[in-house]
Amino acid sequence: MLSDFFAEKNFLSLKFPITKIFKFQKMNNFVKKVREISLEKKTNLCVAADFVDAEKVLKLAEAVGDKIAIFKTHVDILENFTPDFPRKLKEISSRKNFLIFEDRKFADIGNTVAHQFARGIYKIADWADFVNAHTIVGPGIISGLKKENKNSALILLAQMTPAGNLFDENYAEKTVKMARENSDFVCGFIGSADRPEILRKIRNAAGPDFLILTPGIKFDSAGDGLGQTYNSPQTAIENGADILIVGRGIYNSENWEAAAEKYRVAGFSARG
Ligand code: 6AU
Fold first, then answer.
1. Which residues are identified as catalytic?
2. Which residues line ligand 1 (CB under 6 A)?
3. How many other β-carbons are positioned within 10 Å of the β-carbon of residue 98?
4. The pLDDT value given to residue 1
5. Between 20 and 30 A from 148 (CA), which of 2, 27, 117, 235?
6. Cα(159)–Cα(167) distance, rounded to whole angstroms?
7. 46: part of which helix (H) or strand (E)?
């Protein structure tokens, strides 16, 4: 039985009009920053840069930088990573005014994730504005990351997009509770429009002070043969998402900038 905490409530609209959002004052500084960028650049788009060539990732950031609020990386898939990569990406992000999300999906004990976050080759804590973590391992993962945090905010995976995943309503509810208990560091969730009834409950329970970032967004909803599920920008926004993560829908197109513009318009106009 789920608690009242996660029951469907009607007092909050699922779509927060972006211009009215600033009356909610409890929000983390990173959430505030995203909202400010969204308003200024009229975008709630996050581009997922899943190339294995660092130069291509930087080219993509230059091409779509004016259209996005957040740029998402997977540094561990880069075949030519050097410390120059985050330095160059940071320069583009401050020039084009977007934030950087390293999609590392931490999933180990606190002590190990602390090392993974701050040390090794990538030194993620030195440059990422956002990182994300699985809550399956309990709140120690949040403490471990917090211990090494310099200037990042944490996103928790409350849902995932692949077909047949084991995330359920109970898991999402416990994840929202963990976020509320650590709201100095946790600023939002990954949610999926493929289970809209759960996404709505996450939004209701989390309120407007947390971001919900939703991957699995594409105009063409055909899957990728590897389990990924896709929904439209409208479906995600109507069910409580505020940031839309788009990868292949943009970087597999011939004109990255034009594709990003189409997703920017669709996502931002759906916000109302
Ligand atoms: O648009 P795509 O399918 O090309 O890329 C989606 C991006 C990928 C995934 O690693 C990521 O979003 N993702 C995540 C994230 C962001 O945490 C969670 C999830 O459940 N599904 C998903 O696709 O970079």
1. 105
2. 48, 50, 103, 132, 160-161, 190, 192, 215-216, 228, 245-249
3. 26
4. 42
5. 27
6. 6
7. strand 45-49
Write the DSSP string, 63-130: HHGGG-SEEEE-GGG-TT--THHHHHHHHHHHHHT-EEEEEEEE-S-HHHHHHHHHSTTT-GGGT-SE
**CA-based max dimension of the chain:** 51
Task: Check: pTM over 0.85? Answer yes or no.
Answer: yes
C-alpha to C-alpha distances, 194 to 112, 137, 178, 190, 228, nearest whole angstrom: 32, 24, 23, 12, 10
C-alpha 39/C-alpha 33 separation (Å) is: 10
Of all protein residues, the one whose alpha carbon is nearest to atom 1 of ligand 1 is 247
Whose Cα sits closest to atom 13 in ligand 1? 215
Of residues 204, 150, 207, the one with CA closest to residue 183: 207
pLDDT digits (tens, 9 = 90+) for 195-207: 999 999 999 999 9
Alpha helices in the chain (DSSP H): 29-41, 54-64, 84-96, 110-118, 140-148, 169-181, 196-206, 233-238, 248-251, 256-271
Please report the atom of ligand 1 found closest to the CA of residue 105.
17
pLDDT tens column, 111-165: 999 999 999 999 999 999 999 999 999 999 999 999 999 999 999 999 999 999 9
Contacts 24+ apart (CB under 8 A), 29-35: 29/153, 30/99, 30/129, 30/130, 30/153, 30/187, 31/153, 31/187, 31/188, 31/209, 31/210, 31/211, 33/99, 34/69, 34/70, 34/99, 34/211, 34/243
